[in-house]
Input
Amino acid sequence: MQEPVVSDTQLKLWNIDTCQTEASEEGTQPILFRNSVPEISSTTAATFGIYRYPAKFIPQVIAYVIKQYATPGMTLFDPFAGYGTVGVVSRVYGYDYELWDLNPLMKVIHDTATAEIPRLDVDTVLRQMRDSTEVFTPRWSHLDYWHPAPFIPLLQRAWGFVHSQPEEVKTLLIIPLMKVTRFFSHDDEKVHKLYRSRRARAKIEALLQDDWEATFWVMLRREVFKLVAGLHEYHQMSPHRVNAHIRAGIDTLHTCLDREVGMMITSPPYLQAQEYIRSTKLELFWLGYSEEDIRWLSSREIPYRRVEPIPIYSELFHKHRAMIEEPHLLALFDAYFHAIMGCFTRLAERITDYLCIFVGPAKVRTVPIPIDEIIREHFQHLGWSHVVTYVDQIVSRVMFRSQVNPASGLEESRMKTEHMLVLRRY
Ligand SMILES: C[S@@+](CC[C@H](N)C(=O)[O-])C[C@H]1O[C@@H](n2cnc3c(N)ncnc32)[C@H](O)[C@@H]1O
Output
């Protein structure tokens, strides 16, 4: 296992946050993706929001790009698929697809979000679950740190039942049970990271004062019905039977495409600390992953790892790099760009038509880093042409306009735009 390049403390010092960039430059087009695809009514419609996944695409981003650039027969590819939204949307428009992600959760979410409507009677299944004596214990030394002791036997039986069931039952229950399991933990669900807070403590105290076992089953039942309703709505969109190739739990930096694909649509890990594995480890332990598995996955996350340097053909990259004085920030800057540019450059060799890369602008200390522009310059040097950069306003975050960063004491602006860079081969 390789050592991460930087520590958590260094990451806090990194003070990366997102910022606004001008949307008026040549080759850019302002857009509000969420309002751009009339057939997708909301960002969480159907099964586009069955589970909270950090930095998830809204479905309209993918739908819009597909409608603009995909041609019949094309295969769509996302090497950092996260929730698997590219797959869930591709089916609606009838495209084959391939999804990769380090996080094994991607396959669970994708398979549930694209499942057939269950033919099972929900209440019968839940009754069997209640009566089951199967027990599953996660291989997790911090189990009782994250779950109050009284809840653990109930969770062990619920997961014991799920793990003993055929696929159809698992698909119906896993996502709802993941949500309820997280609720019955010390985690604060309002925060993406696994995080204990005063609010989480108040939640547990309130649960313990009441009939928490009854609450557990009511919540689970409600979540199962919500999922079934989402699947009905998804099937009303007439998703096609397409070829889907899903590879979760893999390291994109060391994986090769074994065939040509038409279009890559992806959003790479963000420059700021996101820690997808750490954010979702509670779920991963209950799904059966061990501490060793989780350590391996965490050690592969971009940008927390050492990577082979590659030539980066961008003046902007070198200009911004020259402005960074602190060695640890430089190490992270290098790790990030060599990781994402290295894998995009290698994967692009097997992409026949379009690269569509969605990124949030970021800054190091107070200096904005135009990630999309750096990627654009690099690929233009390699012979790709710039079609357009769509500049999307992030409606839900506009309210957090200016805050003081506790790490730097500096006032900072939160992300207000995200950019979809579209490049075409020649
Ligand atoms: C911005 S998120 C992608 C979100 C996705 N577009 C969605 O709709 O949910 C970036 C993803 O990169 C993944 N990732 C980080 N390092 C990786 C690696 N070395 N190999 C593969 N995936 C990686 C993370 O697990 C995360 O899901």
In short: DSSP finds 16 helices and twelve strands in the chain. Residues 8-108+243-425 form a domain with the Rossmann fold fold (CATH 3.40.50.150).
